[in-house]
Write a structure and sequence with these properties.
five-stranded antiparallel beta sheet, three-stranded mixed beta sheet, 294 residues, Jelly Rolls, alpha+beta
Length: 294
């Protein structure tokens, strides 16, 4: 059953590990279970906690228990996304297991996952294999494969949290925050004034600013710019846009200078360098593919 803000998982009370093979929910929601999601089809932009970034086929995300999140398909159609979702209600179902000394590393990893993680690319192939084994197994085998996945993830070095800041999520305003996000995702390419977005939230501009900062630990302008840059990254690599300036205007920036400055702040490199890096990686992949087939 889907409830705006909270996602109820049928069968969660009966099993320790729940596996679904479904598209992502494209509305802001949360659930008490930790979620491990493997994207096997589609791409788009996601929000996890207060993090905004692109996602694509092959990505694996670890979403903390009760961490608000949504995944928006690049074409706006959630049915074009495919993902395997593993849900763990570890705080109660795994309580006895995690109290064992041998599980201390996994217990610490699960606790740190409250901020969300993205599995580094060089580890996704192995993690994908284990996730698919979990999906195809059941009963005790599924539980053992899940522990094997957690064991593998524990040994991945230097995890970088997706969300920033130390705060407790508040869900009394999830529906309002969802309205803000949905409007932003639909109109990011327009000039969204503070008065306009405040009216979407049915608040005064002053109250809106306080509300948004409290729930996301960032200003609305920062969030808007981050979303615009996430969309710009896709457009920069698209054949539909012939110049950086065209992408700047298509993503809501009034000029290329501001776009370049914001892009570099968010991505730590210029738009041109981003394009060059992607093309370099594509060339390396082509060479690798050719070498394997030769």
């Amino acid at each position: 059953m889907k409830v705006l803000g909270h996602l109820s998982l049928s069968g969660a009370s009966e099993r320790s590990v729940i596996v679904h093979d479904t598209p992502f929910a494209d509305y802001l929601h949360h659930h008490k279970e930790l979620q491990i999601a493997l994207v096997y089809k589609g791409s788009g932009t996601m929000v996890i906690g207060n993090c905004v970034q692109q996602f694509s086929t092959g990505d694996i995300y670890i979403i903390g228990a009760d961490q608000p999140h949504l995944f928006k398909s690049a074409d706006g159609d959630p049915s074009n996304l495919g993902a395997i979702h593993i849900y763990l209600e570890y705080k109660t179902a795994f309580e006895g297991l995690l109290s064992m000394p041998e599980m201390e590393q996994i217990k610490r990893f699960l606790k740190n996952s409250d901020y969300g993680f993205k599995v580094p690319k060089r580890y996704t192939d192995t993690a994908t294999q284990i996730i698919r084994k979990i999906k195809s197994s059941s009963g005790l085998d599924r539980l053992l494969e899940t522990i094997q996945l957690l064991k593998f993830l524990v040994n991945v070095p230097r995890w970088k949290p997706l969300s920033t800041g130390l705060y407790n999520y508040s869900f009394d305003g999830t529906e309002r925050l969802n309205s803000i996000y949905q409007y932003t995702m639909k109109h990011y390419h327009e000039n969204i004034s503070l008065n306009k977005i405040a009216s979407v939230a049915c608040m005064t501009p002053h109250a809106f600013c306080k509300y948004f900062k409290k729930h996301t630990l960032k200003t609305y302008l920062n969030f808007l710019n981050e979303y615009r840059i996430a969309e710009a990254c896709k457009k920069l690599l698209s054949e539909d846009y012939r110049s950086v300036s065209a992408v700047a205007y298509a993503t809501g920036f009034s000029n290329a200078i501001t776009f370049n400055r914001v892009f570099k702040k968010c991505m730590s490199l210029t738009p041109t360098a981003y394009i060059d890096r992607f093309k370099t990686r594509e060339s390396e992949m082509d060479i690798e593919t050719f070498s394997r087939s030769a």
